């Protein structure tokens, strides 16, 4: 029976594919205050700005490709049962060949009703003010904004409790509830934390690999080879 590797990924793994993160530039995300484009209040105040912002982010996905770190994680499925829990809203894990992915913060290529959070559809086009769901309500990006509940967090906690190995890649470990997932793995579970500027983690089971995602996953694969 294959061991279960649970992998938590953040913006750092996508950054090497050219996707920017707001934490890189004084709280701005692609030149915008995150409170304007990533909160329910921002959407209510200026829905056209918010819709256009995510239209541009969606279009950006067509211009970027998965990097070697994404492909390395997909390759782990050969020897392990792998679940990826990502804070990222891009589809680079899917495009690199990974199969079991939980998107904590939503997905750029999906939209939902602004009234019914369960009315979700796939979308590869732009969304405009006036585009409505079947019940006549404005469509919005399927993104978990600041101040909103994280619907997939309970599932993610359940997955972490089943982990034989936990890997954390490219996250500041500052955004909750995602940052708290590490606390749900069993005490004996080894944890590998890949980040060029890792946060201080108070856990003796954590093995820090102070590298970028692409460099760090290469090292991780070598370590895991010795365990197989």
Q: How would you summarize the topology of this molecule?
A:
Blueprint: E1 4-9, H1 11-15, E2 28-29, E3 32-33, H2 34-37, H3 40-45, H4 47-61, H5 68-75, E4 81-86, H6 92-95, E5 101-103, E6 106-113, E7 120-122, E8 139-143, H7 153-161, E9 165-169, E10 191-194, E11 206-209, H8 213-225
What does this structure look like?
There is one protein chain. Helix 5 packs parallel to helix 8 (213-225). It is built from 8 helices and 11 strands. The chain has 2 domains: 1-19 and 66-105 and 150-228, TPP-binding domain (Rossmann fold); 20-63 and 108-143, SIR2/SIRT2 'Small Domain' (2-Layer Sandwich), CATH 3.30.1600. The N and C termini lie close together (12 Å). The strands form 3 sheets. Strands 5-4-1-9-10-11 form a 6-stranded parallel sheet, sandwiched between helices. The chain is elongated and about 55 Å long. It is an alpha/beta fold and 228 residues long.
């Amino acid at each position: 029976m294959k061991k279960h590797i649970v992998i938590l990924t953040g913006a750092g793994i996508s950054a090497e594919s050219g996707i920017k993160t707001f934490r890189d530039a004084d709280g701005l995300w692609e030149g915008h205050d995150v409170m304007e484009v990533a909160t329910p209040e921002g959407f209510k105040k200026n829905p056209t700005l918010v819709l256009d912002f995510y239209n541009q982010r969606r279009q950006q996905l067509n211009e970027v490709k998965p990097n070697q770190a994404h492909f390395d994680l997909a390759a782990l499925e050969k020897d392990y049962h792998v679940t990826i829990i990502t804070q990222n809203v891009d589809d680079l894990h899917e495009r690199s060949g990974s199969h079991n992915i939980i998107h904590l913060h939503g997905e750029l290529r999906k939209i939902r009703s602004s009234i019914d959070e369960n009315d979700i559809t796939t979308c590869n086009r732009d969304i405009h003010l006036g585009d409505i769901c079947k019940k006549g309500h404005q469509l919005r990006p399927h993104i978990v904004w600041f101040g909103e509940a994280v619907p997939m967090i309970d599932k993610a906690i359940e997955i972490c409790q089943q982990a034989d190995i936990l890997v954390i890649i490219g996250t500041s470990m500052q955004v909750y509830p995602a940052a708290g997932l590490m606390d749900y793995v069993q005490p004996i579970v080894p944890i590998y934390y890949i980040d060029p500027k890792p946060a201080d983690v108070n856990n003796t089971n954590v093995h820090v690999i102070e590298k970028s995602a692409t460099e760090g996953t290469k090292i991780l694969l070598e370590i895991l080879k010795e365990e197989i």
